Amino acid sequence: MEPGANSNERKVIQAREILAKIERGEDVEYDGVIVEGDLDISELELPTEQVERKKVAESLGYRGRCKVISSEIAITNSLIRNNVNFNYAYFQKRISFVNTEFDGLAIFGVAKFAEPTEFARSKFCSDAIFKGTKFEGYADFFRVNFGEYTDFTRAEFGGIADFWGAEFGSKARFWEVEFVEDAGFQETEFRGDVTFMGAKFYKNILLDSSKFDTMYINFNSIKDRIVYDGPAYLRLIKNFKTIERFCDADDCYYQYRKKNQTRKKWYSEENRLIEFFVSYYNWTFAKIKRIFESLSWIHNYPPFTWIHRFNWSKLLDWIGFVSCGYGVRIQPIILWVLSSVLGFTLLYKLLPQRYGAIAESGPSTVTMEAVNNSTLLFTFSSGDGAISPSWGECLYFSFTALTGGTPDGLHPVGLCKYAVMFEGVLGYLFLALFVVVLARKIIR
Fold first, then answer.
1. Is residue 237, in this structure, part of any structural domain at all?
2. CA separation for the pair 253, 251 (Å, rounded)
3. Which of 87, 321, 335, 369 is most buried, judged by most C-beta within 10 A?
4. Terminus-to-terminus CA distance in the chain, angstroms?
5. With contact defined as beta carbons under 8 Å apart, do 36 and 12 qualify?
């Protein structure tokens, strides 16, 4: 029965009846009912137990003792019209509020759920408070519709936290929350601000097809945990720029490109006949491939032969990665410049002189020689000669060549001329990359 069904078709249960069962330790099980009155355990005479919590809960006024609820509670497909207060509750058994509507304030603050907790497809019309709550088992919030304000500040999820398809109102707080297992926010919609500042993720966080306008989160807390989803990464990048966290935006973009490149293969398989069936008959590629692979004899015929093509897109991505970190890293460019200078320094120093060398430029000289009594022979000499330069001279020559200059008194001969030309071209490329990346960081 849906929560929105006609009230006349439902049985009305008084909240005091449910509270009496909880106080006696009896299981509570209702389906398709309307609960009238405040469901408040604060006045119940229940045993208390010391529950160890982390220091982060102390600032919430946590007193260390919770009221022990030994009943198994299952109120499903129902409507709870008034407020719910399970503050400082220690639920020892399974709790289920599946497909239940909370019309009033719902407080489960500083509580402890020892067993799996189910709120799937429920609706919170007012605020939902789970501040400082500890979920030791599976926390099921699948397709829950939260109200305007939802607070999970400093909650602890010891099991999987499933918020798949949930909808949040104008404010959602996950400040300093700990997710020990996977945190699933696939297809989750945050209609307002959501904050994960200080949150810790020990396993994966899934944001596939999620929607959010403004999310406050440190990218370092999720960069090694976020499961790859292209659109989710692009939304995060846009979000970081919106909240002016440009370093996080660059780091997020860098990881997005890196993971995207890793998923690509150097060679792709193509089959012209299969492409025909995909284009004109709208068959799935996997279906056609399975059919052809089951017919072993057909692979000998050229129309069915797989064609391996080099993936140029992966090569371009790889070049972008190693050269400038996809346009968001200056450090690789600086490293390339230093490596080039040192590499060519070694070349100029260790290259045998018979292949090329650094020559010293000197003044031209004229030599006059008498061939006979009436003839004189004039010989011109440039004064240049190959030298054995020191390491300092080679370093100076290499750095000057990279910046497009010409060292005073030195010039290359032999193969060194081509090395200088190549080093000069590299210098212009590095300068262009540096200017582009630096301009991108400054002008935004």
1. no
2. 5
3. 87
4. 54
5. yes
